[in-house]
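Exercise 3.2. Students should predict the tertiary structure of the chain below and write it as structure tokens, then compare their answer with the key that follows.

Predict this chain's 3D structure.
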Amino acid sequence: MHRDRRQRAPGRTRTPTELVTPTEPGGRRHIARARIAPTPSGYVHVGNAVNFLLAGKLAGECGADLLLRIDDLDAPRVRHEYVEDIFRVLDWLGVQWQIGPQSASDAVEWSQHRRMELYREARETLLESPDAFYVCACSRSMLGDPERSCSCHGLELVQGETCLRMHTDGDDRPVIWRRDGLPAYHLTSIVDDDFFDVTLIVRGEDLRPASDLQRQLARFLPGNTFPEATLVHHGLVTDDRGVKLSKSAGSGAQPLHLTSALLADIEHRAEGLRSELSSAD
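Answer key:
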């Protein structure tokens, strides 16, 4: 079934830049749309803010639209105050986006829950490749036990009992569809990036393995454009001890105190990462 993604994307949008320009003189691919995709499972921390600012800068340099996508599918961890905090920090940073919710009250119209049909369609397509994907009843701890091996074969996907996993070149067998009946991050991310015509993705170096996995995954979804996107992996944003800032490690437990000194620090970090990327080029 043919879908015009731009017409179906909800909310207020401006006229997008040219979406398809394969190459420019010299063979460089034209970048048309970047995105920032925060997860409202905690308050925005400094690492998030640096990524927002860097993505906005790179989008501006490339003449790309910027999409705000809020990854809100994990409902038990999502809180309204976390969603509000995303807009509070973006406004303070001066990051401007052209596509996506314009306020916390507008976010529900752009929720990932409204795209469940797309995720289910992708899941059914993946199930048509049994050599690459399989239904599994094993827990993570069972798979991590060297004395046990997964013998799941011929199972059906049943909410609460089984999940869908992907065979990879290594020992990892990532979950693509969770046993709670929801798609996993890797699937929602590439489906959403395709749906919104994203062509530039700016993420931390720690997500490079995820990028590689998502490229593999997307190749089993005919027409998915994720493998064609330009991925930029920037250096990690760390604290004073050199530890990566992340919500899982406790960052974002409290809202940022938005001061001029903090803004200067975030801008300095973003500019430093931008310079590192230029040097790498």
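Discussion points: Strands lie at 33-36, 65-68, 133-136, 163-166, 175-177, 200-204, 230-234. The CA atoms of residues 264 and 270 lie 10 Å apart.
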